[in-house]
Design goal:
Length: 354
């Protein structure tokens, strides 16, 4: 049997590069040779045991590759074509998908929270030489020749997620927007706010290097909570509160501060993944009658989403390559996790080449 190298999860803190069989695509699936992938914050949660997956699973969910083989019923594609596949792979057929909630795909049944997230969660993922793409007809997005793997790899997850934070917030032309945390997703939310037509984008983080990148990605003003009173400063800059606050970390502090800088009737667009209990202080929320809106979003996937994001890059509206600060081979991925996990060397994202 032909084998491939893959990054396999075995238990908390235990992963390894191993030789495993190259899978065969069944009906509706495609086999893709991965040419570039990356490491996500969610992968760190998995390895640290903060998000449970079953031992033996290949992790990773941000694939760029080349089609090797198509299962029965996948039409309009050919082996050799370069494709980008979103981190979220909706089936396009179920109640959730056909109701427009693709990320909560129920795989033919009803709804499943996070159901569209399958790679490196419920099925083998992208940190491998080869990958099976489920519901391939809905998920293989052909990459325009003009674009390199590095230009598109971050669209699979963090850019789709970050930009969706701006879209779910219904940012309007002329809005004032505050983005809490300028990690990879927050930086993409900052770029998304600018793309949506915000007049003033305020980027907030404690890391000065990340604040520098925030300015490159579209932040007009950056604030460090260690150096100023963020609530007072944002309220001053926005004359009483922002139209939209985007939370891109997943902590009580950032969530609560995002609420405190919101104008009455404003929208808190939350992208963070929270743990434990999240509390809403009544005074930050006008006791529940401030016409505030709180919306949450899971990374939109599917080939049409990927096509649209690639169009933005192709037409020079968005450049994500400054976020790819490190490059490692698949064999050295454990070292890549260490650099990414410990936030060493000014790391933002690590490109992994099988
Ligand atoms: Zn991710
Ligand atoms: Zn579905």
């Amino acid at each position: 049997m032909d084998t491939m190298r893959a990054h396999v999860f075995h238990g908390v803190g235990r992963t390894a590069i191993e030789h495993v069989p190259i899978p065969k695509p069944r009906a509706g699936e495609a086999l893709v040779r991965v040419t570039l992938t990356t490491i996500c914050g969610t992968d760190l949660h998995i390895v640290r045991g903060e998000y449970p997956v079953k031992p033996g699973l290949v992790i990773g969910h941000e694939p760029v590759g080349v089609i090797v083989e198509l299962g029965a019923g996948v039409n309009g594609y050919a082996p050799g074509e370069r494709v980008l596949i979103g981190a979220i792979t909706p089936c396009g057929q179920c109640r959730a998908c056909l109701s427009g909630h693709l990320s909560q795909c129920g795989h033919g049944e009803g709804y499943e929270a996070l159901g569209g997230w399958r790679f490196g969660n419920t099925i083998d993922g992208a940190q491998a030489e080869y990958l099976i793409v489920p519901a391939a007809q809905a998920n293989l997005a052909k990459i325009p020749d003009a674009l390199t793997d590095e230009q598109v790899v971050l669209l699979a997850d963090i850019a789709s997620t970050g930009i969706s934070g701006a879209e779910s917030g219904d940012i309007r032309v002329g809005d004032t927007v505050a983005v809490f945390a300028q990690g990879p997703i927050g930086l993409c939310a900052t770029a998304g706010a600018k793309l949506m037509g915000a007049a003033l984008v305020i980027g907030i983080d404690r890391n000065p290097r990340r604040l520098e990148v925030a300015q490159r990605m579209g932040a007009d003003v950056v604030l460090d909570p260690g150096e100023c009173d963020v609530v007072a400063e944002v309220r001053r800059l926005s004359a009483g509160g922002v139209d939209v606050a985007i939370e891109a970390l997943g902590s009580q502090t950032t969530f609560e501060t995002a609420l405190r800088v919101l104008r009455p009737g404003g929208t808190l667009s939350s992208l963070g993944v929270y743990s434990g209990k999240l509390q809403i202080p009544y005074e930050a929320f006008a006791a529940g009658i401030g016409d505030h809106r709180i919306v949450t979003t899971l990374c939109p996937g599917g080939k049409e989403r990927m096509r649209r994001l690639m169009e933005i890059v192709k037409h020079n509206r968005l450049d994500l390559t400054p976020l790819l600060t490190h490059r490692v081979s698949l064999d050295d991925i454990v070292e890549g996790y260490r650099i990414f996990g410990e936030q060493r060397e000014g790391v933002l994202k690590v490109a992994v080449k099988p």
